[in-house]
Structure formats: structure tokens, C-alpha cells
Amino acid sequence: MALVFGAGAGLGSAVARRFARGGLHVGVVRRNADGLAAVVEEIEKAGGRATAFGADARQEDDVLRVFDEAEKLGPIEVAVHNIGANVHIPIREMDTRKYFKIWHMACFSGFLVGREAARRMAPRERGTILFTGATASLRGRVGMAGFAGAKHALRALAQSMARELGPEGIHVGHIVVDGPIDMPWIRENFPDMVKSRPADGLLAPDDIAESYWTLHQQPRSAWTHELDLRPWVEPW
């Protein structure tokens, strides 16, 4: 069983499709379960298995429920946290409610997902836990204090978990997605940037998803913890 939290129309759905092609029953999770119908249908038409879960990953009870229900379908081998909160707010306009909301979405939800995955994987001494990072995981930019703070914290969480859980047979990975992903939201909100790039100048969701699958398949004698991905036109 693979659980993908944040299975939206871009990267999350691509990751779910890739793990389904790999033979895993995939649980796709987002706040509104109705928005998961398309990816579930796509996976099932391709011969895979998928189950939709409506849950708010910021709510402990919701996360516990999803893990408990998923375990009834099969042991959870992979848990993916793919929830972001990429919001541009100048620091002088940032109020406490907005700051905590960004942190809850981008970091606290990762703690809940990571903890519950570890609790179920540890007795079996196997499993993969993957966190989606961003450019903000490594450096803060103008207007991104809330998002960068949350993503820095998520990266630290992943590092600590990797050191704690690796000796117990659990592979923890953090993937830095350093660049714009080719999905409807990016094309709608940044048309000039999209137009300025070649056809393969955006990160393709299916190509990113292949790296998630590769991390899960790695032999434990040579695990990668952090992997950063960017299109060839993206500056370092």
C-alpha cells in the first residue's frame, strides 16, 4: 500500500500513478475526496488499484483515520507527503493567523504523516517515507518568510527522521523540487514565464514521480536521503 497525501492535479497524482504502475495499491488523499475521482479512475483504467480518502492532513484525527483505514487494505509500504503552501506574503503584511496556517499546511501535516507512517512501518522494519520539498527548503526569498520557514522546518524533520529510522529499516527521503512544475496552476498564473521557456523547460510531473519511485526501489546499502530536481534551464 502507498499513501499519497496531497494528491492534486499535478505532482501528487503523478506520484500516485507511478506507484500504482509499480503494483502498489495507492491511497490518494486530499481535503476534498470528490477531487480525487479523476486520478482514481485513471489508475483503475490502467489496471491499477486506488482508493480515495478525504482528510485534512493538518488534523490529527483525520490522519489517524486514513492510516487506520489504509492498513486494512494492506500494509503501508510507502507514505508520501506532498502538501505545500506556496503563498507570497510580505513580512509586514503577515499576521499570525496566516503564518500559522502556512506552517500547519507545509510542516505540521508532515509531522503527522511522518509519525503515523513510522509507527506502522517500524514493527515491520521496512518502508519508505518521502517528503516533497521546494526551493524554499534551502533558501528564503522576498515575500516567502512563512513558506520558507515551514519548508526549512520540514527538511529538518525529514533529516531527523532519516537518522532515527534508517537503522530500523525505514528509508526517509526529502525531494527538493527546485523550479516550476508543469501543471495548470503554473500555466494559468505565470503565462509569460511559461511562454519564455522551451517545451521541456518546466518540471514534468511524471518525470519527478519517476524519481520518487527510484528512491523507493533503492537497495538499503546505498540510500539517498536528499534529491534535488530542476529543469535544465533553471539556474542553480
List low-confidence stretches: none
Using the 3D structure, state the CATH architecture.
Answer: 3-Layer(aba) Sandwich
Q: In the CATH scheme, what's the topology name? A: Rossmann fold
Indicate the proportion of strand residues: 15-25%
CATH C-level name: Alpha Beta
Shape, per Cα inertia axes: globular
Radius of gyration: 17 Å
Mean pLDDT: 95
Number of domains: 1
Count of individual helical segments? 8
Distance between the termini: 36 Å
Helix and strand sequence: EHEHEHEHEHEHHHE
Largest beta sheet, briefly?
Answer: 7 strands, parallel
CATH superfamily: NAD(P)-binding Rossmann-like Domain
Short summary of the structure?
The protein has 236 residues and is an alpha/beta fold.
